[in-house]
Amino acid sequence: MMGNGRSSVMRSSFSAKIVAVLMSALLAVTIPFTMASQQKTAYADTASELASVQAQVDAANQKLLDIASELTVANDELYDIQTQQADVNSQIVDTQRQVDEAQAKYDAAMDSLKKQAVQNYTSDQVDYLSVLMSSTSFSDFTTRLYLVDKMMSQQQDTINTVTAAKADLETKQADLQSQKSQLDALEASAQEKSATIQTALDEQTSYLAGLSGQVTSLMAQQAAEQAAASAAAAAAAVAKISSTSSSSAGSSGNSWSGSAGQIAAQAAASKEGCYYDLGSSGPSLFDCSGLVMWAYAQAGVELYRTAADQYSQCSIFYDSNELQVGDLVFYRYSGSIGHVAIYAGDGKMVEATVPGSTVQCNPVRTTNFAGFGRL
Question: 263 and which of 124, 175, 299, 312 could share a cystine (Cβ 3.0–4.6 Å)?
Fold first, then answer.
């Protein structure tokens, strides 16, 4: 265990000659960097296409919402018409009942009047004239005449009243039938409108489903290209680190060479694709600080286990222009150091990210950046 976290290899190797060594390494890493560039281009093209399709999805989704709103309004209108239809139909039924009752009253009054007429003019019955002529006095005659006239008048009034009521009901019935015809026409139009909008909604839903399928396909393609780009970046990092190192071998016996930082960066990059596992430190599963600890162990440097403790072992600086291969990159979450990665050169770092992901070579991020660390 090193008291200050630095090995003698680190103190002695990465000197002012690094600039010249790095320049001499450019030809050695042309092919891997070209592959990484091609992967980045493919990834960028897919990302651009995905963004375009996603914009179409957003527009299609908004149109779908607009059509759905139109359909809601149309269905509400149809419901209102059908409610009015139900009310008019109820009134028609009620009016028909009243017409039938008036017709029954009319028929009964006419039947009564007919019977009285028959009684008046049938020879074997006492007619009204006999009743009148049998009166014993003028006063009695007048009384009898009044009663006969009153009875006939009441019957006629009943007939007239029923006839007028029946006529009013038939007029109301005709108006209701006219309203029903208009509402039937409105309902047919509203049904057609709703059906047309529903068809448009179904077509838009189908179109949106197609776009969503494209998004899913492009996201899968993007993930594959991202993985390929990460692999290419890792390969480029390993190639560059190897090309800029000295001929001395690392303490682990692997082919990695150079300073402790270079060896650690090469070792970390060689684990690209290994899965993240919280609390693991290799050789096939890692969390962020576990990867850093394992990688530096390959160079003979023993580090603390957690990112926060590794942060305390380092000299912290913030200028990216001072970065050297093997420097650590720290990130802060909720006020504490919560993530660490190893700088691999060219603005890239090797890191074990989150559960479900793998060791990757990614660009150095500025979000939640907490500083660079040198052992």
Answer: 299
